Amino acid sequence: MKITLNNRVESFDKEQMTVAQIMEAKSFRFRMLVVRLNDNIVKKDKYGETLVKEGDDLKIIHLVSGG
Questions:
Q1: CA distance 51 to 29
Q2: What's the fold here for domain 2-62?
Q3: What does residue 25 show for φ and ψ, rounded to 5 degrees?
Q4: pLDDT tens across 7-54, in order?
Q5: Which of 4, 9, 59, 65 fits a 20 to 30 Å CA distance from 52?
């Protein structure tokens, strides 16, 4: 499958994957993340069940805090 991940085309061997599987494959391990799939926010407790399919637009954004 091909998707757009953070504005870059990425290819995966499976036809569909969950958000959690993609995060694991791409080593996204930060605690504070915002995930948007086709402009819809995905809540953390839904990462393991939200499917990403061919052509989807996924954004995984690291939040930075500080002062």
A1: 19
A2: Ubiquitin-like (UB roll) (3.10.20)
A3: -65, -35
A4: 999 999 999 999 999 999 999 988 889 999 999 999 999 999 999 999
A5: 65
